[in-house]
Prior knowledge:
The structure holds two protein chains of two kinds. Helices cover about 70% and strands about 0% of the residues of chain A. By secondary structure, chain A is mainly alpha-helical. In chain A, α2 (about 25-45) packs across α4, α6 (about 120-140) crosses α9 and α7 (about 140-150) packs across α8 (about 155-165). The N and C termini of chain A lie far apart (about 35 Å). Among the domains of chain B are: about 5-60; about 125-160, no CATH class. The longest helix of chain B has 24 residues, at about 85-110.
Amino acid sequence: MRVEPAGQAETIEKMIARCLKGDQKGFESLYSQFASGIYRLCYSLLLHRQDAEDVTQETFVYAFKNMQRYDAKRASFKTWLYTIAISRCRNQYRRKRPLLMDIANLLHFDVPGPKSETPEGSLAEQNAKDAVEAALASLSPRLREAIVLRYGHGLTYREVAEVMDCPQKTAESRVRLAHEALRSLLQPVGIGLLDELLSG
Amino acid sequence: MWNFNCHYCKAHLQSYMDGELSPKARRRIALHLDRCPACYNAYMQRRDFSHELQHVIPLVGQRGAPDFKQMWGAIQAELPRQESQPRFYQARYGMALLAFTLMLIMPFTMGHRDISRMPPSPPAPELLAKRETPDVTEPVVVATIAASITVESELKPATLLPTVPEPHNQESLRGMDGNTN
Lengths: 200, 181
């Protein structure tokens, strides 16, 4: 199933074709297109900056070395890349149990927000983000993957199922369960305020 | 007041919000939400929460993002370099191809003669010598030469043919023989 819009899909196909010819520019274009998304995905699942960076790097190295294995008929490039990233993140869970949150991030060592933001808004957003990170950390890996893919990256249930290698109904129920769990975890924090701050 | 419709509605509320239901199921839930305040309340809470999650979850990992250029440098270092073939090899393959083509063409260009217009080549002297002194050990050759001699003899003028005795002469000869006997 294709994720990219028609125009973009053509561009990605061209990039892939260039990569298959061994053109370094093709790799660079694909990297710049997906690096941010893959890092966000890895960070949302691992909640550790260094681990997320390592897994992002591993994902791209693996994908670029095995580019000839990618079959455009079976999945979009984004889905294929997400599948590799999820698989690497699972390896990382196995190596590092229990899940540890990035202490530096929690202590706000490096959160210089944009100057246009008000300090109150920035603080509220940071608090909400921390609360969400803590809630995500308390979820089981499978539920975390499902909710992050669905709400963090806007994948359809079919794509979530494809990336998680499970039936679509299972993906749906995982998203529902994660949704319920996050609701019960975040409602006492008062996350509802964030919506007003973001829209304001 | 909970009934079957409330259970159905609760179970499919998430799919309803995500637009993943069939038009018929969607219409059924929409009708129920219009009539049931409890389910409508639950729907509104869930919808608001989903909306918040859609805003907040993408923020996770956005701040303090790594230096992607530096990461690209590390990735690039691990990628296999494209091995460009030196021009020397290309020239060598070209030369080899040219030599092969020349080898193919050479027999046709160097020994070219129009065979159809040429007179037949005279028989070799060895063959003539054989005709004169046929080898007895080779019956086929002998037979061939004999046949050729007979053909040649047929082609010769009558004057050259050896004289064959007439039948009456033969009878006279027989008579002579008989007389002698």
